[in-house]
Design brief:
This protein is about 65% helix and about 0% strand. It is mostly helical. Helix 2 runs parallel beside helix 5, helix 9 runs parallel beside helix 11 and helix 15 packs antiparallel against helix 16. The protein is globular and about 65 Å long.
């Protein structure tokens, strides 16, 4: 595997500045400052925040992550002498940071974090973390309008040995989204169908530790989303509805609700769209996924632009949704 960022630079000011790092880099960056438990603790806090309140709530904690793990601000090549277990933990932490930055809508910074994670994974030979980074980066590329690059990145994940079923399914999911954006309807439908077939093979002893989140809800949501990209509303809406209805999921799965609303509007299901908006609007200020919030905002703006043909009650609901999205989040009672 190769870096996502081309030649690696000794110092990345914009990455460090965004994370809030203001202290000098360690005098001997090849000597460990952090321990594996330090890194794991920091990663767990970020993951818990992301799952519970979303990426936008986790971003303000990133400067604290750098203070706790100063290796985050060191060029990966200068960390080559570190113990492989510590390098692997640092790679995982950078992967988590890349995911959070992506779901918070900070795409260029997510790209840099992904490149850093991949470089660290290469240093310690952690192919599974490297594969997850590539899968995350493929998603970022598709989201930012580069489906051919997304397809190529996802295609780098398989190796000489067959992948476990759930990882293979995720590769196909990423490829299905990219090919759907490119307008290759049949190829996209085939890939998402093959992803379902692989998923049904179940878990295996060869699954990497991170494969736990590739579950039925995740698959349903992506099946529906790919169908919606293909304008196959009759398939998309029931699948997205089922995925969105699963309670107590991680915050980022609000995206499936947002894509359900978009599909309902695409299908002209005005009454269902109005009902969903009235259900979602009271909580949109607390949505932690910038992707989900942006999708809801785009759909609301589309309804307001259409004017004629959209029932007045739905236009009013869309206006309320748009206003709710721009309202500041109210802090929970237990937060200052």
């Amino acid at each position: 595997m190769t870096s996502l960022d081309g030649p690696r630079r000794a110092h990345d000011p914009s990455y460090e500045q965004h994370l809030g790092h203001r202290t000098p880099l360690p005098a001997h960056p090849d000597r460990p400052v952090s321990s594996v438990p330090d890194v794991v603790r920091t990663m767990r806090r970020l993951l818990d925040l992301d799952a519970g309140r979303g990426a936008r709530a986790a971003v303000p904690v990133l400067p604290e992550a750098v203070r706790a793990v100063p290796e985050l601000a060191v060029q990966p090549a200068h960390l080559a002498a570190l113990d492989s277990e510590l390098l692997a933990a640092l790679a995982e932490l950078c992967e988590v940071i890349g995911w959070i930055l992506f779901d918070a809508g900070l795409h260029r910074r997510a790209h840099r974090a992904n490149a850093r994670a991949l470089a660290l994974a290469e240093l310690c030979g952690d192919r599974w973390t490297g594969r997850l980074v590539l899968l995350n980066h493929s998603m970022l590329q598709a989201h930012t309008g580069h489906p051919r690059a997304a397809l190529a990145t996802a295609s780098r994940v398989p190796g000489p040995r067959p992948l476990p079923a759930r990882v293979g399914a995720l590769v196909l999911i990423r490829q299905a989204h990219a090919t759907a954006i490119l307008g290759a309807d049949h190829a996209a439908a085939r890939r998402i169908g093959r992803a379902r077939d692989l998923f049904l093979d179940g878990v295996s002893a060869g699954d990497p530790p991170w494969a736990w989140w590739i579950d039925e809800t995740e698959l349903l949501g992506h099946e529906g989303w790919v169908a919606a990209r293909l304008h196959r509303w009759d398939q998309a809406i029931p699948l997205l509805r089922r995925a969105a209805a699963v309670p107590d999921g991680p915050s980022y799965r609000d995206l499936f609700t947002a894509e359900l609303l978009s599909a309902l509007v695409g299908a002209g299901a005005w009454r269902d769209a109005e009902e969903l908006i009235r259900e979602v609007a009271p909580r949109v200020a607390r949505i932690g996924s910038a992707r989900a919030a942006r999708s809801l905002g785009v759909t609301a703006a589309l309804l307001l632009r259409r004017g004629a043909g959209v029932p007045s009650a739905l236009r009013d609901a869309a206006a309320h949704l748009s206003e709710s999205l721009s309202a500041p989040e109210r802090p929970p009672a237990d937060r200052p």
